[in-house]
Write a structure and sequence with these properties.
By secondary structure, the chain is mainly α. The protein folds into two domains: about 20-170 and about 215-230 and about 250-350, no CATH class; about 350-420. It has helices at about 1-65, 70-95, 100-115, 120, 125-170, 175-185, 200-205, 220-235, 255-265, 280-285, 295-340, 405-420, and strands at about 360-365, 380-385, 390-395. It has a three-stranded antiparallel sheet. Helix 1 runs antiparallel to helix 5 (about 125-170) and helix 2 crosses helix 10. Belongs to the clusterin family.
Length: about 425
């Protein structure tokens, strides 16, 4: 009789937990629709950004083909510009950055040897910076999309297990849950992006085999990575060398210096920003290469327009990634709370319910009377087994009699709390 009363309480808690999992699935379905809208906007923004970069490269190539009249003058200036540019950039790097000057020097030497004076004349580092930024954005997106997919998979796994629990407990009362089961359909088809990493999935999927671990741990490193990349991106559109002059260290804050150091280590074209510090490099900028061909002036204008457009769409893409991150973090926080409260029910999918229910009472004993207050009724010790747990010894206050409905409610509540922990 006690087991039946306790199981009745547990049945109610299981049903409440199943309804909580239903909330998780409903929230995930709604978020997935919002997520699809963000993906489509990201795809469109990426397409327009790539078109603008491609246009800029075409205009750069067209300008380069028209430089024959300037080649002799510009090449002579370039040979004098290169050593000054290298010396100025390395001096800045060695004074501002902590390590790696030897590697940076070799990379810079190779970059200058394969570059032409035209790189300075058309602000060549802007295209290089855009291409590198595009690669970083792709890596960031793939990481976020991978983790978001794991979040969806985890909620779906918990939901499927919970439907099994409900079906076994209430085989003749499927209607309240049936409509929700129909809602469990194949996920919305995603637009094409690079595939998720199987290695990554195998590493993180165990989080969802134990619901009490929570979802938030998936996104802690991602949050830090996103903040770092957005800080770098913000600095990339400024001219972080603007405070530099020969003989003194860059006059910017520590964070900006750190971003500049990373930029030079990753991309030697960043040193082209220092062209104003070298006289011969400045002279390249002053060479008028379109006097004999006014069309070159128009080409350069078109190149600048394409670069500005590409940079604008790149910023827009960063804003969308930030919104994507905010969506994930907000949803993850809510799902994490629901999972900690209700996710335990999914662990019951593989259990077999006994004839007397999930809670089995094996022993009920009156404890030794309290010596400090002999008149007080002694507490009751109850040994129970809940689901697949080891036997638990629980204590019920002595002022609650065995036939009080609250007695088994207290026992069942304590047993469930232990099980969840």
């Amino acid at each position: 009789e006690m087991s039946a009363a306790g199981s009745k309480y547990i049945d109610t808690e299981v049903e409440n937990a199943i309804n909580g999992v239903k909330q998780m699935k409903t929230l995930m379905d709604k978020t997935s629709k919002d997520h699809q809208a963000i993906l489509h906007t990201l795809e469109e923004t990426k397409r327009r950004k790539e078109e603008a970069v491609q246009l800029a490269r075409e205009k750069e190539q067209q300008l380069a083909e028209k430089q024959e009249v300037c080649n002799e003058t510009m090449l002579a200036l370039w040979e004098e510009c290169k050593p000054c540019l290298k010396h100025t950039c390395m001096r800045f790097y060695s004074r501002t950055c902590h390590s790696g000057s030897g590697l940076v020097g070799r990379q810079l030497e190779e970059f200058l040897n394969r570059s032409s004076p035209f790189s300075i004349w058309v602000n060549g580092e802007r295209i290089d910076s855009l291409l590198e930024r595009d690669q970083r954005q792709d890596r960031q997106f793939e990481d976020m999309e991978e983790r978001y997919g794991l979040l969806e998979d985890g909620v779906d796994d918990i939901f499927q297990d919970s439907t099994q629990v409900y079906s076994r407990m209430y085989p003749f009362f499927r209607a309240p849950f049936g409509g929700f089961r129909e809602a469990f359909r194949a996920p919305v088809q995603h637009i094409y992006f690079p595939p998720r990493s199987e290695r990554f999935s195998r590493e993180l999927h165990p989080f969802f085999q134990h619901p009490h671990h929570g979802f938030h741990r998936l996104f802690q490193p991602l949050f830090e990575m996103t903040q770092r990349m957005l800080e770098e991106a913000q600095g990339g559109w400024e001219r972080p060398f603007s405070g530099f002059a020969p003989g003194r260290v860059l006059a910017v804050g520590w964070v900006d210096e750190r971003m500049v150091c990373r930029e030079i280590r990753r991309n030697s074209a960043g040193c082209l920003r220092l062209r104003d510090e070298c006289e011969k490099c400045r002279e390249i900028l002053s060479v008028d290469c379109w006097q004999t061909d006014p069309a070159q002036s128009q080409l350069r204008e078109q190149l600048e327009d394409a670069l500005r457009l590409a940079e604008r769409f790149t910023r827009r893409y960063d804003d969308l990634l930030r919104a994507f991150q905010a969506e994930m973090l907000n949803t993850t926080s809510l799902l994490d709370q629901l999972n900690r409260q209700f996710g335990w029910v999914s662990r019951l999918a593989n259990l077999t319910q006994g004839t007397d229910g999930f809670l089995q009472v094996t022993t009920v004993l009156s404890k030794t009377p309290n010596l400090e207050d002999p008149s007080a009724p002694p507490d009751t010790q109850v040994t129970v087994q809940l689901f697949d747990s080891e036997p638990l010894s629980l204590t019920v206050p002595g002022d609650i009699s065995w036939d009080d409905p609250r007695f088994m409610e207290i026992v069942a509540e304590q047993a469930l709390q232990h099980y969840k922990q």
